[in-house]
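hiii so my PI (J.) wants the whole complex modelled not just the main chain, which honestly fair. so below is everything: two entries, each one labled with what it is. i double checked the lines twice but i was tired so who knows lol
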Amino acid sequence: VPKLSGNLLIGQSGGPTPVINASLAGVLSEAKKMPEIEKIYGMKNGIEGALKKEVYDLTQEPGDLVEKLLYTPASALGSCRHKLTKAEEYEQLLDLFKANNIRYFVYIGGNDSMDTCHKISKLAQEENYDMQVVGVPKTIDNDLPITDHCPGFGSAARFVALSTVESGRDLEAMKTFDDVAIFEIMGRHAGWLTAASALGKRCEEDAPHLIYLPERTFDEEQFLKDVKAVYDKLGYVYVALSEGVRDKDGEFIGAKDAATDAFGHKAISLSDGPAAYLAKLIKDKLGIKARVNRPGTIQRAMSSLASKSDVEEAFRAGQAAIQYFTQGLTDVMVTLDRIAGEEYKIEIGKAPLEKVANVENFMPDHFINEAGNFVTKEFYDYCLPLIGEPIPEYARLVGKPIKLK
Amino acid sequence: VPKLSGNLLIGQSGGPTPVINASLAGVLSEAKKMPEIEKIYGMKNGIEGALKKEVYDLTQEPGDLVEKLLYTPASALGSCRHKLTKAEEYEQLLDLFKANNIRYFVYIGGNDSMDTCHKISKLAQEENYDMQVVGVPKTIDNDLPITDHCPGFGSAARFVALSTVESGRDLEAMKTFDDVAIFEIMGRHAGWLTAASALGKRCEEDAPHLIYLPERTFDEEQFLKDVKAVYDKLGYVYVALSEGVRDKDGEFIGAKDAATDAFGHKAISLSDGPAAYLAKLIKDKLGIKARVNRPGTIQRAMSSLASKSDVEEAFRAGQAAIQYFTQGLTDVMVTLDRIAGEEYKIEIGKAPLEKVANVENFMPDHFINEAGNFVTKEFYDYCLPLIGEPIPEYARLVGKPIKLK
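here's the output for the full assembly
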């Protein structure tokens, strides 16, 4: 199939991940090999840049950019949270594509961004403008459907797994002084990242002891019972808590005053999150101290702790976008498909954009225990390969304490 | 000098660090070579364990313990925050030492723990009980005097430096949506760890933009002016804020209801810290959004990001404690002395315990800029060698945005 010669427009959107730049690197390295692509333009702050006609000419950047992007956190092009709604915005975009001979469009992002991507693809088709559109998945939330998992999740999961088990050892060491630690973890609707807190746990003493996910209704009474039971047994309790836990009425726990973002999501991670609220509840009702660990954006930014397999898959997903152009494909998102078998292996696949736009993929029931306060062995099997190198086996004394004279 | 044959009692105390176990490893590996040491007892939860006569017999642990301790976070023996005050506690301890032939005592800890260590040393001397006492420094706060720096600081500083610059890239990428991020960093009285947030910054755009230390009086009006000035210039502001900032009356910012610990310190890092308070202030007064990153105990626990030089120095400090026993020394703390010269080099030294007990070492004036909201080049020179491998040079686009047609 002969391809049109023209320019590539690429953007990054939504909350950054440690490897969204690795996907950009994959796109860039592959786009340079595709003869039909002339200029590579990077939208400044995603679709907002396209609306303002502000782009970076990536064809002009130094040759070491691709290599550096592999370990650079956040979005090198800048990101945004902009929902396309107005008719004049579509017109503006179509004008931009036409005026600048944009024939290839890549958008790296999550659910909302895949919606943007799909709308642009539809726009081009409806207006008979010949432009191929491919989405590259990206989200620490791991909530895109069809793909086995999302680039970005494995690295954030690695940070959460390591920081939980390591700060859990801190709490355990301080148990004569501290009582409870609550780690508030990102994930507005899906609990994947919170669930990943379990991955470093090797024994009962290791953190976390309790995990609360948005997939289950949060009940304050039951929570206090759970905390008390662990406390009575171990003398300390480490709780992994999703920022998105909600009560039976669907209200976010402790987030009555939260602001709302452009997509109508409540921004619950400003100063009042559920962890601070529950720490107070524990103090009031159980009379024990609770600390809050809330790394906030640190958990989605730490490329220093990126999962090696995540970096590699993010890069491959970026390359695939360009390969799909050469195959004549459009209106698809790149997927990571897991090949059944003993050894972890991924094959690059694809899904129609309309099937992923705005669809959220929650944790399935068999990944959550019956009590709704921990994960299952099946979740470990699913998730462990995604975080790269195994979590170290830290020292733990073998002998029990003895009584001196 | 012929030494007494007897048993070694060792404890870890105060807030854990990523390398306090590396010091324990150093003590253990060296103690095994000292013929006079028979049994090695590890106090369960520091001096509290000694008071309860609860110890681990470390002589019985498997041979790979030392190696594993080198990368194990927190305190393998358990820690405590117990201040020796009562006369009967001293009696109990003396009885314990005598009944169990404890002739060697090592305590790994910070200011408060060196006070405990010194009191025990004095007790033995006053009661004519022949026991050598050595303190091994440990604190992420880096606030012990005489020593160039404290084991534990370099690793926590590495985490803070990396997480600041990496989550700073996140904020920068999201600047069309987010405005301000406040990273609340540990250090009740000394600003060393907060200052380390600067170490990954290579240009104006990189985080942090403002640093507030307990060494300077915090003024809310000036803070708002500082934030606004950076915001007007860059469109986003990353603030590194010590949890210990105080106003002109000496009151912790936003911590009116805070609880008090056994040493009389206000425990300001529970649910209400200064960052949450200031985020609200920014929203109210400047009308812009502020996020809070507060990793809490994660910042002092992450052995996964430990500084290699810190691990090595912590190990050497532990070894030195035993070497000082063979040299007939007592009532001293091990110090790390920096040797002047181009290349970073450390020599192991010592300081009398009475000169370090309860003494806090604050940041000197020449490490803080005139405005009191950033660090100086001299601080970089002092601190960069302590965090081990250099912070990566992340990608940053060279070209300026262009305007498409």
